[in-house]
Amino acid sequence: MTTHDVEIAIIGAGFSGLGAAIKLAQEGVDDYVLLDRGHDFGGTWRDNVYPGAACDVPSHLYSYSFALNPEWSRSYSHQPEIHRYINAVADEHQIGDHALFGSDVTHAEWDEATSRWRIDYERDGEKLSLTARTLVGGVGPLCEPNLPDIDGFDDYRGKIVHSARWDTDYDFTGKRVAVIGTGASAIQIVPQLGKVVGHMDVYQRTAPWIIPRNERPYLSVENWAFKNIPGLQAAIRGGIYSFNEVVAAGMTYAPKALKPVEALSRANIFRGIRDPELRKAVTPKFAVGCKRILKSNEWYPTLDQDNVELVTDGIARVTETGIVTSDGTARDVDVIVVATGFHVTDSPVFDTIVGTDGKSLADVWAVEGMQAYKGSFINGFPNLMLLIGPSTGLGHTSMVYMIESQLNYLVDYVRKTRARGIVRTEVTKAAQDRFNADIQHTLRNSVWINGGCASWYKDANGNITVLWPGFTFNFRNQTRSFDLDAYQTLTADAVTT
Ligand code: N01
């Protein structure tokens, strides 16, 4: 049963979906809704509540440019503070009235006859639907937890917790714990658990590069200065941003330039671990930057603790009581923490969005890999804009910068289509193909392709379809205005292009 029709439906109330709502409201769009399966704003910063959850981008850069926060308590923010920040911004812009929380979108399908999207969702057990002229996907790539494909998981009788679905009521004190994974989430969880557990086995498949994390609390005089000295926060943002762009250039064009980062990471290992064998076991075997460069001062000292064992033999299977490795060793545990990341290039969300000819994103991308034009619009999916879509991810700086670039594009799309009475906008295949060929060309010398690692940045074909290569200001320039000439459009009465 269709409940109502809106001009724009946004799925996801995290950084990107909330940003879209704010920018659209400022553009005078009042007829929009924001659907989210959770119960407040924050997206990944609402859902990831594991111990130690924090951002590895400095606080001043990791915020909206239009909502600077002089009150950050630390140089790197932790999850509760970012979650509070996002909700405070939503309150300030009065977005809550447009939010349909507790709404799980199950299916969205383009209807050619009406040039509208039909969106089915479930709320409090009720099946509902609405239609929208434009659908904005703001679910983000890190929303669907990935459980490892290891034999025997179903047989395990203890507790299993995924990093992104933490059980805050479970008491780890004194427990025997296994942690699978050594990515950005695990390196934050393990040091916290290491303080309370009885024993912890950390299963490392690939050792990551980890540099020190220069986190510290801000002094009250600094917060006073952020608030009262005009331009100070903007200048700090600019400084961090510019430094990160230099790193991006290294990753994309000259991976050897990242050698100082490797040296920093090796020094971090040397400082944090006494045992030479353990030092060797945690030293990565791929080029720095190929996988996300992590930041921690506590990871290595935690692995060096007496109650922690680093396990480097591969996992053979899970049993009723624990984990057996390829050398036949069985380690029994009370709880298994799976910090094994997300379905990024194979998200189940792709099955639920259906464009022209009844084809889903999963169908289309199964053939050619994850692709969009400017990370935003996809041939075969009219009037659908993805935020943080293909080729917009970053491993080195703030995603909020990319999101705000896309918001400029979204607002200009609305402005231009409204002004011309356009009801259907579909990017041409030729424009999309050219854009993606350029991306792949830029990537050819990058560390992500040549760095000798397997990573979630690569899809099943070995292509990097997640990341934006090179400078992010190029993306900002490309999304400054909505280039109608890359699209086929239809007004209510005639095809215009
Ligand atoms: O996930 P990951 P994550 N057997 O995919 C291992 C963001 N983030 O949740 O490297 C054994 O990076 C896997 O091993 P390998 C950030 O963008 C940001 O940690 O594939 N191990 C790896 O070690 C990040 O990149 C912050 O060999 C298995 C780990 O699990 C993204 O989220 C904080 C396995 C997965 O690492 C994802 O990070 C946290 C198996 N079968 C997260 N399967 C910030 O600070 C997987 N692994 C902003």
From TrEMBL:
Gene3D superfamilies, A to Z: FAD/NAD(P)-binding domain (3.50.50.60)
Keywords assigned by UniProt, alphabetized: FAD, Flavoprotein, Monooxygenase, Oxidoreductase
GO molecular function per UniProt: flavin adenine dinucleotide binding; N,N-dimethylaniline monooxygenase activity; NADP binding
InterPro entries given in the database record: FAD-bind_Monooxygenase_sf, FAD/NAD-bd_sf, Flavin_mOase-like
Keyword Nucleus attributed: no
Superkingdom in the source lineage: Bacteria
Family to which the UniProt record says this protein belongs: Belongs to the FAD-binding monooxygenase family.
Protein name per its UniProtKB record: Cyclohexanone monooxygenase
Annotated source species: Gordonia neofelifaecis NRRL B-59395
